[in-house]
Amino acid sequence: QVQLVESGGGLVQPGGSLRLSCAASGFTFSSYAMSWYRQAPGKERELVAAISAFGGITNYADSVKGRFTISRDNAKNTVYLQMNSLKSEDTAVYYCATRSGNYWGQGTQVTVSS
Questions:
Q1: Least enclosed by CB within 10 Å: which of 29, 38, 40, 78?
Q2: β-strand 108-112 against 10-12: which pairing, if any?
């Protein structure tokens, strides 16, 4: 049974940081490129960051470049999203998924507000 379970979301003040984690099981994690997406209320889901299967290649949306970092630990079957200098416009539900879109997590809420 494939599972992607996100954690680490919450409420943070503007300028603060959060680290999201996504624990994978039920498939060969190290064979899959992974991604983080987000969806804000009333907006379409957007790709935030992606990482290749072995972590050597990363890509970011222009809106988060220089602030967010995607990484992975294949020994722990986990992908991370370190989010720094958070802004109110980063408020959204964040999802991890395989880059192919085959598997998705349930999402974790990130709210940036004072």
A1: 40
A2: parallel
